[in-house]
Design a protein that fits this description.
homodimer, Jelly Rolls, 6 strands, about 25% strand, about 200 residues, six-stranded antiparallel β-sheet, 9 helices, alpha+beta, DNA-binding
Chain lengths: ~200, ~200
DNA sequence: AATATCTCTTAACATTTGTTATCGAAGTAT
DNA sequence: ATACTTCGATAACAAATGTTAAGAGATATT
């Protein structure tokens, strides 16, 4: 317990100045939960109740398209946050589902707590702004990659960006993240391996 | 002049409470500029100096891929803001170029002014947070569309979303925005027209 | 242990999308 | 006005990606 709280303390302190008193008021509002592999922590159709800070493990955010296929939108790794921002902030039903891929320890942060942060921390609004901005940077890069890169290039960058993750995640999740079919991803991988040998 | 300032006043007031005194301190910091069609207001490689509020006209944000082709990343319409968020906020060189497509009146906001907003407006940080969050909503939808939709579906939604804009913008800009070639967009359009007649 | 289910690979084939080239129309500059 | 670009439509062809199906391993379930 202490351990997880230390980590989120550090996480917050890396964005804003925060006093011990402020932390004392805030930390008890966080709840820590452990989830097993494959657990679904948020269902589409429901309002996204929490902002999740990933202390340990990997989450997958996906949605279901009109053919019923799951499309992975995002992988949330250690020390990052995951949520359906719009559903969570506006309290509207979400189109996304969030699932645990690797046994995870999460810190759940409710909207009330987020609002508490905005109202009661000296730099609460700033924390919200900085986190939102960082999210923008990540997603701009991601969108940009889809525009600029071929599937092969996207596959290569994914491998570089998430070297260890690559072997922990079912391959077809990665395929949908890269916006290609599992069959085609398999083809790209075998192409890569062939050219390595020659 | 007064007119444009009124509009940005309303724009800000739609996000946060702001007093007359605060506005009096802030508005003089904004500068208004008119640009002709095709004017380039920010070059890639340079630091993005301003956050632009579009009072009138249309902007196009694009980048140049490895083959030298321009890829349109975003169209900024009336009453929205445009910038390379990361370049502007971190003061690092930008990969994007911003061009005027339809004769535009812009309010230029420097980073100093943004920082002035954060430091001196009672709800300055909140304004920054809300704008960043809105940006996230827009871009999440956009990214989502690229994942879920076929080029034909994306073309159809684009037409619905920007009905008037559609005929004002050169078609090949739209093609790169939709992530297809101009030739293919032309094909999709003619397919649509054929099926309408039958 | 046996069975069922899921995952990845591979192949053959279908479809979509990209590429190149040509033409005419419209816009821009001289 | 005249020439020069740019733009969009179209066609023929090429390449990339999707689809379907079959089989082999792995994993989970009974």
């Amino acid at each position: 317990m202490v351990n997880e709280m230390d980590k989120i303390k550090q996480f917050i302190a890396s964005y804003i100045e925060i006093s011990e008193e402020e932390l004392e008021g805030l930390l008890p509002k966080f709840s820590i939960r452990k989830y097993n592999k494959k657990a679904i922590i948020h269902f589409y159709g429901e309002i996204c109740k929490y902002l999740y800070f990933v202390d340990k493990g990997i989450l997958r955010v996906f949605f279901i398209d009109e053919h019923g296929d799951e499309k992975t939108f995002h992988f949330a790794l250690k020390n990052t946050i995951a949520t359906d921002y719009e559903s969570f902030l506006k309290q509207i039903p979400s189109n996304y589902t969030i699932q645990v891929i690797e046994e995870a320890t999460l810190i759940q942060i409710s909207l009330e707590t987020v609002q508490y942060i905005y109202r009661n921390l000296r730099h609460g609004e700033k924390l919200g702004r900085l986190l939102a901005e960082e999210y923008i940077f990540i997603f701009t890069k991601k969108t940009n990659a889809i525009y600029t890169k071929t599937p092969m290039q996207r596959y290569q960058s994914f491998k570089k960006l998430f070297p260890d993750v690559f072997h922990q995640i079912p391959q077809h999740y990665i395929a949908s993240y890269l916006h290609i079919t599992p069959v085609h991803l398999s083809r790209l991988i075998s192409q890569t391996n062939k050219s390595k040998k020659s």
